[in-house]
Every structure is written in C-alpha cells, then in structure tokens.
Amino acid sequence: MKKTFAALAAVATLASTAAVAQDFKAPIQARQGEMRILGMNLGILGGMAKGEVPYTVEAASAAANSIVGVTMIHQATLFPAGSDEMGADGTRAKAEIWDKMDDYMAKWDALGAAAAEMQTAAATGQEAIGPALGKIGGACKSCHEAYRAPQN
C-alpha cells in the first residue's frame, strides 16, 4: 500500500510539474510573437527611412498602426509568475520583470507613446520616419537592457 501511494505521489508530482511548465508555453509564445510583429514592422519602416523600401503613406501607416496595436496588448496576462528564463525554457525574460513590474510597464507604455508618434510620422513623409524610429529604438533598448537576458 505504501509503495502504491508513493508511486501515485511521484506520478502526480511529475504530472503537475509538466502541467505548470506547459502553462508557460502560450504566454511565452505570445510575448515572442509580439516581438516578431514589432520587428517585422520596424524593418519595413527602417527600410523606408533608408530608402531601401519604397515609401508610401499607406504602407508606412499600416506598419505604424501594427506597432501601436501590439503596444495595446494587455501585458499582465503574458507574464505569469515563473515564466522567466530561470523558471521556463525558451525565454530570455529576466526575473527582474516580476520584481519591478511597475518599471517594466512604464517602459512598455513608453514604447506605446513612441509608437503613437510613429503613426503621425509615418503619415507625414519618409523623412519623418527616421527620427520616430530613434524614439522607438530607445524605448526598446531601455527595456531590453533591463529585462532581457543575453542570447546564449
């Protein structure tokens, strides 16, 4: 009886550990998806700013609108406790995010403000995109320096 109970307890522990790890898969993938969408659209705007991609107000505005849309995603649902680099595989999110969530959210809000400025710049003309990209880049850098672990 004791052996059966011990075996069941071990199986339950392993199953609960796997379930917890799986709980992080969706939020981590969503966070990474946000970064991919931001990167793709920043690449379009960067190409326009450099003259490597033809500028059209429609394409520039669509990219800027997509960036704004990403910054409007509610972040708390994407950052469950324990989904940091030490507690979950496949993420570079530092544990400091959870210790300083107010600061993280302030940095995310700064990205949103810079993205809103990009919307105006994108509709203004090609020459306005570069300075607006600089503000977005600064917001990204501020957060990544504080809350993203180096790539292995």
Keywords:
Four Helix Bundle (Hemerythrin (Met), subunit A), 152 residues
Write a compact overview of the structure shown:
This protein is mainly alpha-helical and 152 residues long. The chain contains 6 helices and no strands.
Q: Can you describe this structure?
A:
- The chain is mainly α.
- It has a single domain (25-147), classed as Four Helix Bundle (Hemerythrin (Met), subunit A) (Up-down Bundle), CATH 1.20.120.10.
- Helix content is 74%, strand content 0%.
- The radius of gyration is 20 Å and the shape is elongated.
- 19% of the residues are buried.
- Residues 4-21 have low confidence and may be disordered.
Mean pLDDT: 89
Q: Tell me the β content.
A: under 5%
Sequence of secondary-structure elements:
HHHHHH
SS-based class: mainly alpha
Instruction: Note poorly predicted spans.
Output: 4-21
Shape: elongated
Radius of gyration: 20 Å
Please tell me the total number of domains: 1
Q: What is the correct CATH architecture? A: Up-down Bundle
Classified in CATH, the superfamily is: Cytochrome c/b562
Secondary structure tally: strands: 0
N-to-C CA distance: 47 Å
Helix percentage: over 70%
Question: What's the CATH class, please?
Answer: Mainly Alpha
- Write down the CATH topology: Four Helix Bundle (Hemerythrin (Met), subunit A)
Oligomer: single chain
Q: How many distinct helices?
A: 6
Q: What characterizes the major β-sheet?
A: none
